[in-house]
Write a structure and sequence with these properties.
The complex is a heterodimer of chains A (about 170) and B (about 575).
Chain A (H helix, E strand, L loop, with lengths): L8 E10 L4 H11 L6 E6 L6 E10 L1 H13 L3 E6 H4 L2 E12 L3 H12 L3 E6 L2 E8 L1 H14 L1 E13 L6
Antiparallel strand pairs in A: 1-3, 1-4, 2-3, 5-7, 5-8, 6-7
Helix pairs in contact in A: 4-5
Chain B lengths: L2 E3 H11 L4 E4 L6 H8 L5 E4 L3 H15 L3 E5 L3 H15 L4 E7 L15 H5 L5 E4 L3 H16 L5 E7 H5 L1 E3 L19 H13 L3 E5 L1 H5 L2 H14 L3 E3 L14 E4 L6 H9 L2 E5 L5 H4 L10 E6 L13 E4 L2 H14 L8 H11 L15 H12 L5 E5 L3 H9 L8 E2 L10 H11 L4 E7 L10 H6 L5 E6 L4 H10 L15 H7 L3 E5 L2 H13 L4 E6 L32 H4 L3
Parallel strand pairs in B: 2-3, 2-4, 4-5, 5-7, 6-7, 9-10, 9-12, 10-11, 12-13, 13-14, 15-16, 15-17, 17-18, 18-20, 19-20
Antiparallel strand pairs in B: 1-8
Helix pairs in contact in B: 1-2, 1-6, 3-4, 3-17, 8-13, 10-13, 11-14, 15-16, 15-21
Classes of the chains: A alpha+beta (about 170), B alpha/beta (about 575).
Chain lengths: ~170, ~575
Amino acid sequence: MHIQEEISERHVLSLTVSNEAGILARIAGLFTARGYNIDSLTVADITPDHAISRITIVTSGPPKVIDQIIAQLDRLVPVHKVTDLTDNGPFVERELALVKVAGVGEDRIEALRLADVFRAKVVDTTIESFIFEITGTTDKIDNFVGLMRQIGLVEVGRTGVVGLIRGKEPN
Amino acid sequence: MAEKSGADILVECLIDLGVEVVFGYPGGAVLPIYDALFNHPKIRHVLVRHEQGATHMAEGYARSTGKPGVVLVTSGPGATNAVTGITDALMDSIPMVVITGQVPTQLIGTDAFQEADTVGITRHCTKHNYLVKSPTKLASVIHEAFHIATTGRPGPVVVDIPKNVQIATAPYEKPRAFEHASYRPQTKGDAKAIATAVEWLAKAERPIFYTGGGVINSGPEASALLREIAALTGAPVTSTLMGLGAFPASSDQWVGMLGMHGTYEANWAMNKADLIVCVGARFDDRVTGRLDAFAPHSKKIHIDIDRSSINKTVDVDLPIVADVASALADMIALWKDRGHKAADLTEWWARIDGWRARNSLAYPDSREEIMPQDAIAQLYKASRSSKDVIITTEVGQHQMWAAQHFGFDEPNKWLTSGGLGTMGYGFPAAIGAQVGNPDSLVVCVAGDASIQMNIQEMGTATQYRLPVKIFILNNEYMGMVRQWQELTYESRYSNSYSDSLPDFVKLAEAYGWTGIRIEGPQELAAGIRQMIDTPGPVIVDCRVAKLSNCFPMIPSGAAHTEMLLDPSQVEGIMSDEAKALV
């Protein structure tokens, strides 16, 4: 007997939640308990009184599973609202990465050239290294990191995705 | 305002919330609460023998009275012992509030004596949980906990209270009615969906109501409305294990329980129906059988208060997110308003009667041995002389036989562990039901293996003079395990024999109960009568045929139309795909 895998699609979910102890554990735990995937997860409070946080989750699964994830998240008591940005788009999504690259001579110049093409900023430099700050979609950052890997990538830190629906309506 | 201790605030909240009884067990981290209870005799405390017992008692109390069950246990092992019952309540949607003691806040995280991460451990087996770090928050949390446990889809809520929070003081004022910032269950169904449902129901040629525990959770009104809509439409009604009693088994429209051990007619009617109205049920794997063969010819309407139940396993055509009573009332009002009449279902009923004629619940007769099915049938017959009968069960063959052969006509009279399938549920649940219904005849139908899982609660029944009856169908096997080994593993009985059973009659005597042994068919009726007529608690050790199996049965991975009706159809082996299913 072999275990069958289903085809999955990527969705960006945006949640508003009460900013209380344990909320992140509740959400992350729901994903593990029910066998859902988390590709990335970001969280920060978004109101002046720090009462509400926005959580952005990038997940993947078959459409039916995505619907279940949304329903299950919505069922958590401290969750105010769940929006599937992918289904309710168009939406803007951005991720930030810090990318450390080491190299000398031609590699160093090539790294700077590529950074310019990707509109990455230099935020730290030594004679033998740079740290670039880059924002963009996950794809753009993947591409940038892929190119830097060929030059002399040392390490990467990524924030995960945040996203909002385009236009004047709230999520 | 005069300040009160956290423990006093808790007890005052419980009184304000109408709590009459708490099932619990003291320990270091709840001593302040126990001292507060000592001074508040208004709340009855039932001292259990094990915390798992307390949780199932609370479930039995809740399921039989419609009120939330309340549990009080200490930190660490007190809380972890409660986890099975909490999970059981989550799976079966039972309203329950569990108060757990915790080590003082400054010791949390230090691996203190009797410390466990209770909110961490119970996060996924509760509807919600709280760690209260200040006595000023306690009152609002307790009121919120009861609100969450009892509204929407009911479930267990844990409130973890560190010992220093129980002792520290704060002003207390009874919280006013509040609206929760984020928790607002939808109870009223969408009007358009209701209208469509009524249209479909009026036009259906082969409709069936598939009802579940949600009808019972919705309250007695929902059961009354179910009867009304069934009468208006003339459609057959089947139910899950959890929904038994919501629709009367004595009705002509009742086709019996559906699913793995349901009737032939219920499962075939589901398979051939053109409209399934699912009311407060959740298309559980025990009900659907093989998913790709489940009810292939039907449109499906699903009424459920929990949106996450919709399309979870079976795709439905018309979801109605609503409280069952509210949705049924709206449908009935619209049905009458539009002047619909019951369609002519003669042909449909003729087919159902054809399936009924298979008499799928029939079992072989025996003069030498007590057939377990007959023991249940005779228990049912004898108990009809009692005014009010509540049946609880453990988990296994006896549970299925009780579901098949005992007829339930009213809701809240059948208490069983459906979702989690917890052996050890039935006896404490019977104690809880008896506490909530002191004048009812409460019988726990048990197996010889299951009963031993919480048998220590005999002392609780003795202490509180609770006249519960335990009716053990003793076949000296974990019968359902043995049955599956016969189906799947060529009868290799790996560890399913109940060796070294206690003498249940002597055990009864040791606890001050009455013990009765029934050894042959000719003793059965008199033994059951003696059990019912004995005023105090009774154990009946009913020795039944050892190798009887529970039929009909849809084996794992099979469709509704592939039922096994008797042992001659059992092959004894299965494919790996079927073996891998639960």
